[in-house]
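Below is a concrete protein record.
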Amino acid sequence: MAGHTPRPAAAEAASSGLPGGPQGPVYRYEPRRRPQRRAGGGAVAAILGGLASLVVLMILGFAAFGGGDGGLTASGLRPGAAVPKETATKNGLYATGKLTPVGCRLPGIAPGTDSMRRFMNVLSDCLDASWKGQFGKARMPFSPPSRVFWDGPGRSPCGTYPSPGASAFYCPANNTMYVGLEHIVETSGGEPLSNFAVFARVIAHEYGHHVQDRSGILLYGQQLMERSDPLARTEASRRLELQAQCLAGAFLGTERDTLPMTREQYAALIVDVRGRGDDHQPAEERDHGSSDSYAGWVIEGYKDGDLAVCDTWTVPPSDVD
């Protein structure tokens, strides 16, 4: 939606009495490996860019292999193929309106990995049902992501985990979400477990990257990041990340009847995402978005819910700063 401006998170906080500044935990910037090229022209999936006050990141895995569908997205695209701009700017998902509620009811989170794993699995089941229905509206094929909820070190096609400051990532090389059962709490600054939306947003954000992958948007963003100068590359990354934020907000807002948030829980969500902005990073490393943008796009999706508002690809750069 050209000219569409998300409401700044600071204005949202002021009008609702929520804390206005970035008060969440501060995470150090951790440089990431660049993709390594293979002889066949593919690339080993790796984490690009950096982590600037951010727990949750997407791994842009430029791999020449994929899931059981041979790496095809719902748009019939393959990694390495030229992706038209319209895949991101006029994607069929934008015309499907709001997500249809699936009546998601989440279990409470108690201390310990077993409880968090159950929470994540129930939430992921809800996300599977929600996005399968939305892709159906668009008459686009959809398969859900695999899940790895870790409580110990491991390896994925996109690299090893855990890594400093990061609690979750999506790996397009094998269409899998990876989330640390303990790390998701640790990297939230010890957020009380009762503030479930802080943790649910993490899962919904990573699922948003899978939605981008299945719809072809991820490949388009990846294409820009491979061909552009450093500043244009980080802008493309921000458009991907902020769209995933909006998609996460749209899901949480759609399910508000069965996943109601108290004022305190909503405030905790906004403060948490504001604390993950990369405002203080150098311009060439700002690949996720400012505090206002990182929170503002969640708010936009939550309040509106129509997927057309989550088109971050036709808005001016100032809206994805």
